[in-house]
Sequence to fold (661 residues):
Amino acid sequence: MGKTLFDKIWESHVVKTIEGGPSVLYIDRHFIHEVTSPQAFNGLRKRGMPVFRPQQVVATADHNVPTLNQELPIREELSRKQVEMLVKNCAEFGIELYGLGHPYQGIVHVIGPELGVTQPGMTIVCGDSHTSTHGAFGTIAFGIGTSEVEMVLTTQCLLQSRPKLMRINVDGQLNPGVLSKDIILYIISLLSASGATGYFVEYAGSAIRSLSMEGRMTICNMSIEMGARGGLIAPDETTFDYMKGRQFAPAGETWEKSLAYWKTLYSDNDAVFDVEININAADIEPMVTYGTNPGMGIGVSRNVPDQSSIPENERGNYMKALQYMGLKDGQPIKGQAVDYVFIGSCTNSRIEDLRLVADFVRGKQKADNVEVWIVPGSKQVEQAARAEGLDQIFEAAGFMLRQPGCSACLGMNEDKIPAGKYCISTSNRNFEGRQGPNARTLLASPLTAAVAAVTGHVGDVREFI
Amino acid sequence: MQQIKSRTVPVRMENIDTDQIIPARFLKATSREGFGKNLFRDWRYENDDENSPKADFPLNDPRWSGTILVAGKNFGCGSSREHAAWAIKDAGFEVVVSSFFADIFRNNALNNFLLPVQVSETFLQQIFEAVDADPATELSVDLPAQTITIATTGVSESFDINPYKKTCLINGYDDIDYLINMMPEIESFEADRAAV
Fold:
């Protein structure tokens, strides 16, 4: 029987399997940030342990950082202290830090790939659930808790049970205006917010193959939103082209050797998955969420489901979600007014996302009733956007191009959506309060967000192309 | 950890994500302690004000008490923040019962000696019915026997737990100790890989 891509990587990283228990899994790369690492460093100090392999750890500050005036001290005291603590911990334990002011600073899941730190065949962890992003390169990448951060800092290993495997095949031609964000929102709407719990998901099929690395990262990023431990895509020419010449990618002889290995990373024809799902790309339209978990999404031309279509035992929760959102069951989602547009986060803040938005808004003006925040995923993305003149297009349209960070994705830093306001957001979570207490989030693709930015409401991008 | 017998705090919601358990704005501490007071913060208080508890939220309702939290399916989904497990533990809970747990939360809970007990949907509804009928109803959780029992009705169900994790919980071992003891094997694994 053939092997899956997942098993090829997994098996080459198992140090030992405990009988009737988990495996000791070796971790190649460990990303850390300011929020989920301080208690882990405290643990090291308590045990008197060093960081075992500091050269395999990369740190950045992203969750707490302001996205305006980053050259000034962080105003919020606790945020400032947490970022300062990261600086201190990295210095003390010998870890490379791309902190505020560094040309490589940015959202951890944006900088790893763009620097070439993320490479096919690796095991990658970070104290952040969206670590699944790195799976786009054919890696086993998943989010961990702080106790596990401490384990990896101490031993470069984790105790993990092998998950079940699911493959989702998306085949056929995508409709115009449909982006990778729409594919993943569609998949989550089919499977629900818990439908892939216990699984690692491989995404395959011609529609997935047709995507750029940025598009693939968006898909893998949101694997966790249906409960999956992670998602991955077999590396191919698109991956290799992206890797070549990156700062920390292999070069010269090592490149050839790496490439030969990377080309073995695919699921064999006769590999078996626990679950396999087939999706026709043509069935997917631009998606928007209407509820308080990412599984509550619909095509933009559809109506918010009528409560009679919801199973009776789930109706209470369903109506509670709609009440929070201030939406009525059965109403069209198209035409829903929004107050804020947030284009950013580890899901959609890469240069390709910014280019798509800039192309769409060129020569257009933002609607009077909305505020538009464009938050690049990294200093490098910001720099590229400015070099290409995207900043001027945004400025002319009345948008604000800010500085890199997690920003309004999670209501932790200064960028919060006020209570009761609607935000169409390219981020990954529409949970209650996620973007600020009582803020209302509609998840969508960068193009659908751009439509809302210029019209002031949820619209169908297909009417503009 | 062996046997736990306690009344319950039932939170009858599904898909409780870790942003509800502990909102991101409370993740700025650099120690593991003190998160309990912000557990379920935005469901617990009106307008983010500790002086305005929402009377109908179970943590504010004197009928409910004890060290066993009971919640609807897909508990702990979303963010990987271990602060969610710390907050629940810090608020005095030893067990969380649900019909389904998100993977990262389950690991985080186990790493903090907070026991996630996954029961069938039917059994979960039986718990809710029993505590509705009598809020003083106690649940007994027997970790060595891997059973959970509703004291008033005597109805019982067994639950799964990884045998390795069970040993850890019963004896108070954690994964870090195990891994540190494996350091020589980890180093030879690295050497073997480098040689390929």
Summary: Chain B touches chain A through 54 residues (CB under 8 Å). The mean pLDDT of chain B is 96. The longest strand of chain B covers residues 3-6. The CA atoms of residues 8 and 68 of chain B lie 5 Å apart.
